[in-house]
Each structure stands twice: as C-alpha cells, then as structure tokens.
Amino acid sequence: MSQIAVEKTYDTLAMINGDFKGKDIVSFDQFSADDVRRIFALAGHMKQLVLGKEPCQLLAGQLVSLLFFEPSSRTFGSFAAAVKRLGGQTLEIQNPETVSSVNKGETFEDTIRVFEAYSDAIVLRHPRPGAALRAAESAEFVPVLNAGDGNNEHPSQTVLDLYTLYERFGRLDNLTGVMAGDALNSRTIHSLMRGLSLFENNTVYLLSPEKLRLKREDLNMFRSRNITIHEITSERDIPRDCQYWYWTRIQKERFGSLTEYNEMVAQRFTVTPALLAEYASQEMILMDPLPRIGTIDTEVDKDHRAVYLRSQVRNGLYTRMALLALVLGRA
Amino acid sequence: MSQIAVEKTYDTLAMINGDFKGKDIVSFDQFSADDVRRIFALAGHMKQLVLGKEPCQLLAGQLVSLLFFEPSSRTFGSFAAAVKRLGGQTLEIQNPETVSSVNKGETFEDTIRVFEAYSDAIVLRHPRPGAALRAAESAEFVPVLNAGDGNNEHPSQTVLDLYTLYERFGRLDNLTGVMAGDALNSRTIHSLMRGLSLFENNTVYLLSPEKLRLKREDLNMFRSRNITIHEITSERDIPRDCQYWYWTRIQKERFGSLTEYNEMVAQRFTVTPALLAEYASQEMILMDPLPRIGTIDTEVDKDHRAVYLRSQVRNGLYTRMALLALVLGRA
Amino acid sequence: MSQIAVEKTYDTLAMINGDFKGKDIVSFDQFSADDVRRIFALAGHMKQLVLGKEPCQLLAGQLVSLLFFEPSSRTFGSFAAAVKRLGGQTLEIQNPETVSSVNKGETFEDTIRVFEAYSDAIVLRHPRPGAALRAAESAEFVPVLNAGDGNNEHPSQTVLDLYTLYERFGRLDNLTGVMAGDALNSRTIHSLMRGLSLFENNTVYLLSPEKLRLKREDLNMFRSRNITIHEITSERDIPRDCQYWYWTRIQKERFGSLTEYNEMVAQRFTVTPALLAEYASQEMILMDPLPRIGTIDTEVDKDHRAVYLRSQVRNGLYTRMALLALVLGRA
C-alpha cells in the first residue's frame, strides 16, 4: 500500500529492456540501444510540446522530490523545469544544510525513506559515489533517478549528450569526434564513450595532456566495447572531418595537490575561433557539458557550430522530461 | 480588505470547537476530542485521495507560506507535500539566512505581516518557544499553523502520532503503551500524553533513565488529566500486552553539558529484534517520531510492527492535508 | 527557435512605449507616464482577481526563474507569489551558494543563458550595480526583470510606491510629500522622485541630516525634471498639508566607516504618534519601503494612515503580477 503514482517493479540496477515504468535510473549501463532510442523519440515530442507553448498536464498531481545533497544549479534547474513543464510539482531540498535530519544524525537511508513517503519519485544529487544505488535500494516504493553521484555516474547527462549528437546527425553510429580534457578522470568523457559503445563504428580522438591519458585498462575496455580510440596530445592531430568536438574542463577535485592541478591546467586546450577555423569542418558541432572553465573562448559563442549554450542545454530539459515521463509511467 | 482565501475569525489560541476555518493552530490544547475525530475522518479521506492517484484541486489557487526559521527537512517536506498534493502552491523560505530582512534587523512581527500579505496561510517553524503565538498574534488576516516552536509545541506531530494509533486500533481510549526516552524533557512524549488525555482510560509506561523521569508536577498534572502512568527504568518492566511502543531519542540540546548528555545516552534504551521478541506482542506497533538516533536498530525495520518509516510518516502527510483543508475552509 | 512563451523583441533598455511584450525591465527610465498608467490599470485588475479568490490561469504553463544572488525575502516572496497567483510556476535559486556553477567559476553570462534555456522569463536580484543590464544583454530569448541590482535600480519597487500613491489619491500629479532618510544615497528616494518626475507639478520636502543632503548635481537634475524640491533638516519644517510621508532607513552599507554611520543614525528621524499628531493631516498616508529599522515606531502601526504593512506590501504583489503578465504577453 503506497500513495505513489507508480510502484517500483524490479530489482535495482536491472536492465530497462523497454520497460521504464517504476524503475530506478542509477546507471547508464541499464540502457540498451533501443532504450536510448525510446528516450530520444519521446524527447523529440517533449521538444515540440515545449516549443508549442501549450500547458501540459502529463505529470499533473505528481510530486517529485529533488534531493540535492550538493549544489548543482544547472542540473537542479533542468530537472525542476522538466517536472514543471510537464505539469508536475517538486519537493525541493537544495541545500545540504537544510537536510536537517541529516545534521541531527539521521542516516541517509532514513532520509530517503521519509521523502519517498511524500513523493512519487526521487531525483538525487550527491557528492558520494554509490549514493544513488544506496538510495535506490533504500526506497521501497518510488523510483530513484541519479542526477550525479560524485565521480561515479550522471546518466541523464550522458543521455543529453547523445541526444545532441543524434538530433544533429540523425544517428549515433559511424561518428568521429574529439573529446578533450582530462581523459584519465573525466566522468563525462567516460560516460559518453560508454553511451557511444552501444552503437556501431564510432571513432574517438582523445585529446589530453600526456599525464591525463586514459588508464590502460579503461582503454582496453572501451576498445573491446566497439569504440575506436586514438590518443592525441596536440590540437595539430585533430582530423578535419570530425562530426563533433566535446570539450571538458580539468577539475581541481580530481588532483591530490594544487601544484599538480596547476601543472595540468597549464597544458589544457582551449577552443578559439582560430582553432575552429583551422581544424573544424562547417558541419561539426562544438559541445561542452558545462560549466566551461578554460575550455572555450567566449568569442566562439556566436559561431553557428557552438551548441553548448543552445541546443545542448535545452536537450537536457527535453531528455529529462522524457525520462521522468517514462519512469512515472506517463509516456 | 484582504486578498486571502479565508479570514481569521477569532481570538488566537481560542478552542477550535468544531470550527477550524480561519483559525490559528498554535497549540494542541485548542483541540477537543471531537476536533481530533474530525481531523481523523478527513485524514482518512486524504489517504484515499492520495492512494487513488487522482490530481486534487481542493487548494487550487491557494498559496501557503512555509517559513522555516530553522531547518527541518521532514516537517518541511511533509507540509510542502500536503499543500501540493491538494493542488495548492507554496512560498518557501527554508533557510534562515535567506530571511534577509531579519538579517537587516527587521522584527519577526514585520516579517510575518509581509508574508501574510502574499499568502493564504502561514506554516511556521521556529527555534524559539512561543514564536508561533507571536506570529499568530501578528498576522491580522491569515491563519498561522505551528510546525514546531522550539521545545514548546508541534501540534501536527501530536495529531499524526494519535492518528497512527487510531488507524491501527480503531480507538484512542483503553490503550496501554510504553513511551521511552527522555521523559523529563521530551516534547513529543509530553504532547502525546496530552493528546491521549482527551480520551478515556489510557495507561502509559514511561521508560527512562532514573535522572530523566517526569517532573513531579508534570506527573501529577497528567494523572489529573485521566492518564494512568507507571514509571519504569528497565526494559524488564515492560508489560507484554502493550498496544504500542513509542520510542524517542535523547536530545543533546536539552542538557547543560556534553558530559551530562553522554551520561544519559549511555543509559538509553534501544529497540532490537531480541527486545521485541521478548517483550512485544504480535499486535502492537512500534513508533518513533524520528529522526531515530540510537532508538531503534535498523534490523527491526522489516518487522511488520515497525511503522515509523511507513504509516507513521505517511500519516503526517494525510493529517497535515486534513489540517490545511480545514483551516483554509476547503474540507 | 526557442522553447519560450514570448520572444524578446527589441534592444535592451529601449523604451517600452506601450509594448511590454518580450521586453527586459532593467530601469524605471524605460517607462513613460502612459506605460505607468497601463501597469496601474492592470494592477487594479490583479487586485480584484486576488480579492475575488478565484484560481487564475493567466500564466498557466509559464515558468519564471527567480535568480536571487543575494537574499531578499520580501522581494523574493512578492515575485514568487505574483507568478503563482497567476497560475505560473517558478524555478527558484534563492541562495547564492547554491548557484554552484558560479562557485565552480562559471561566468554570470553563462548562468543567465543556462536559466533562459529552462524558463520563460528571468527575475534577477543581484548585489552588483549593472548586473541586470548584463543579464538582459546575455539573455538571447527571454525577458529579464530587474528585482534590484545593488544601489542601482529596483524598478518594481518604484512602481509599487507610485501605485500606492495613485491608489490613494487617484492621481500622480499635484502631490506634495516628505521623503525622509538618507537623501544623498537612498535608491528608493531617488527612484520615487524619478517616478514622480513623469507627472506634473509635484513637490517633495527632502528631510535628511545636513550631511546626507542630495548631491547638488542630483538636485539640479531633479529640478530640471519637473520636481519642486525643498531641503529640510528638521521635522519642524514639515508642512501640515503633505499627502504622503515616505520614510526610509539609513543603510549601513552606504558608509565608509561605522563611526560615520553611527553619527548619521544618531541624527535620523523616527515617526512617532506624537510626530504624526503634530505635523500630519488626516488624509495623508505614511509609507516605508521596508524593512523599517529606526524609521517608524510600532505604536504607529494601528493608525489608519500607516499603509507600509498593509496596502503598500500588497501593492507590490499586484504591480508585479501586472508587470509579469505584460512582459509575458498575457495581459
């Protein structure tokens, strides 16, 4: 007996296999290529719905808890907007200090179980890797959506990145791109490669400082998963026919010391109009999961290929609307 | 002239006497047994409404300010969900630092009067005992609901505790239970006994360390109010036929020194599967106002008698929905 | 291509000239006298709508971002209530620390562009003068409303002050009033004089300590803009036939040292029942933009002429409802 709109129907971390209703979304690995296509089809509808400017009541009467144990204004805003654009309502805990019961010593599991009693789904952001899985296991009745758990997973980010490629090129196979930044540690780069590995014949040029190359075991894993990887350490090695550039920042929190971080930052790559002019085709798109910090010169913003502050951000809204509708059984 | 949905109709702290509309809810003592039954009848409807999963518009167009001058994620979430499940909207001030006018030196009374101008009711959480009464006296037009003012009152907590007993046993008289914890200081224990004192023939076993026994004046007061009290200091004295166990934590803020607190914590009682097996009947329920900190072993969670993270939390939602609908004249 | 309800149609800071739809509201100087009258007419409707207690769906399906980079509970509550009273929804970032991307080093411009992707309008509060203009220039698609940018502008405050005068006297010309406080630095005093300068034949008595008189250039500017100004330094010089008193606090942040501030505070003027009895007519109104700190004795609150916690606060709601409806093309 539960007050929720849709009851959880399965083992946490089970594959979606076409049936999203009532399932936790903890890891991108729960999706098959068909699942991704299903999300994309619905995201396309969501986009039309938002552009059509008609109020939507798909989630009318639905209440979604947004539990953000660390601040993340973009992801928070995107999920909150997704719920509200669909006519649903949110329970918002944005600030870890206001999760008072936690301050009083309550366990994370209890907090999750309290909020599942109030709402139809929980969107969780947490600094600790594995927190989303723990939340999903704690919630008895309502689905949990991982909105980023530390350096572990952020499946809706991967979905929106893939959707941005799909929307532009009409496919997710036979694409060649550059991913630049901290190939060793970057969650977004690793996740996007895992996403692409569901599809055929993708080639990635990994551009990073020598010291931030992918671990050999990760390199082998991705190669075994269908991705052709070329490691490069200079912009001069970017092939001119890439369909996309995916630029990411070097994150301070990944390094043991500030010295080490500063050394890496000194070697980072920044997209400028000149770099685009020399190495990029007219048909490519330039992506960034944001925030861009040292990644892309603002001079580039007006370029028609710069989608990071345009369709990429908006696609986060559309794909999250799709995910919520699917999980809540309202697609 | 006011923009509100329902105007305050009476003197603050007056008895409800069957007429909730437009009244402040500052203290549980405003309720008669019939008032409590009225809330319960409506809470039952609210439960059906939520379980029925149909969007509800009972509070459509109503705006409820949630002014939380101290964090309390559970109570905040419960009231916010109650408003939204009824189709209403909230003005949320969750963080005392964002009550900027207060920081600038504005009086509490002025803040209340500003927010009553924006909304149809105010739900107030405040660390200072008596704050709810001051707010109720300051608000000229809209009802104020006390969501906890320090160690003073938290009437909706008492209502949900009583409702949990009522829902399970179909009555609030002729019940025997244990209340464990800090009998001297615990607001929830005192309030629940006051609630039960509205009904006939209730017996409470107060389990606490010797030093945390009820004050003699409180003991006499409760006895004069119809409650049979037995003070016990060991689990061995729990009778096997109790209908409920109500376990509460020992709160650090009630003690002058950490030494004193630690001494009491060392003597506290914790529910374990073994304790339940030995002293509890199969028909009883195990309650906790939460957060549970040292009160109940997580091993107990799956026991069918453990209602603290199940019906007790949910009943908070249903009873607050009922209270809001009654006070706003939409029952 | 945008998902928004109404697209921006013009150059930032352009005059409104009767056409609010899709325009940024950065400065009060964008309004003509006719624009102000248009807002007032609609604010009157909004008041009836709120008093009529019927749910309104004028902004149904509309999502308004409230980006508050500094806390301001009154302005936040007023804008949030305005959106929700019209049936719209909000994206709320109340606490600067939760604008995490900013903490991570994201530029203000990027943050604005991210939130415009999620919503149909942005209401911005920011401590830095000029921030609203920067936001308006950054937002490509949705209108930005300035809810206060430091000591620079707070146009909706000016509108509500003017509306309070208009509602009481049926006109904005031929009014005589006192404005008391820090004439040198006060944003609200300067803005209200600019507002009145759109209309004919207004006279203002500026009551301030000698050291806080208006700058000579500002004095000349206001005189050239149609306002008759008398500078006075004692309550004894208040004429008995003023239609309004507009009292403002002396703000600490305007002074270089605490000594200087304390010296000025020692010379400030406070409204008491005695002062009203001696110098105020029965027909005048007493206004304060709030918070009142040292400006008005609480003894005065019950006086029928004291509108600061009554119609003045409520008029903030009605005029902001009007502004939002106009800018979003739903008037």
TrEMBL record, chains A, B, C:
The lineage of its organism: Bacteria, Bacillati, Chloroflexota, Ktedonobacteria, Ktedonobacterales. One of its GO terms (biological process) is 'de novo' pyrimidine nucleobase biosynthetic process. Keywords: Pyrimidine biosynthesis, Transferase. Pathway: Pyrimidine metabolism; UMP biosynthesis via de novo pathway; (S)-dihydroorotate from bicarbonate: step 2/3. It catalyses: carbamoyl phosphate + L-aspartate = N-carbamoyl-L-aspartate + phosphate + H(+). Residues 174-326 form the Aspartate/ornithine carbamoyltransferase Asp/Orn-binding domain. Belongs to the aspartate/ornithine carbamoyltransferase superfamily. ATCase family. This is Aspartate carbamoyltransferase. The keyword Transferase applies. PANTHER family: ASPARTATE CARBAMOYLTRANSFERASE, ORNITHINE CARBAMOYLTRANSFERASE, MITOCHONDRIAL. The keyword Transferase applies. It comes from Ktedonobacter racemifer DSM 44963. Residues 23-167 form the Aspartate/ornithine carbamoyltransferase carbamoyl-P binding domain. Pfam families: OTCace, OTCace_N. It is an enzyme of class 2 (transferase). Its EC number is 2.1.3.2. It comes from the Bacteria. Catalyzes the condensation of carbamoyl phosphate and aspartate to form carbamoyl aspartate and inorganic phosphate, the committed step in the de novo pyrimidine nucleotide biosynthesis pathway. One of its GO terms (molecular function) is aspartate carbamoyltransferase activity.
